[in-house]
Design goal:
Length: about 60
């Protein structure tokens, strides 16, 4: 084991705390990106389905 000054130990601890906070923030950001990806996929699916439905309505005869 090596000797470190109290100042160095404080700096090391502060760096570890900041790294832990960064890891937590990265995890939260990752979850938000996954959520946005799923929302985007669902929007794309809805647009595709709506387009198919509208295209089907256009091809219906206009006289009843």
């Amino acid at each position: 084991m090596y000797n470190t000054s109290p100042s160095q130990r404080y700096q090391d601890r502060a760096a570890e705390d900041i790294e832990g906070q960064n890891d937590e923030a990265l995890g939260a950001l990752s979850q938000k990106v996954k959520l946005l990806k799923n929302i985007t996929i669902n929007i794309g699916n809805e647009v595709r389905d709506s387009t198919k439905m509208l295209n089907g309505m256009v091809s219906l005869p206009l006289s009843l």
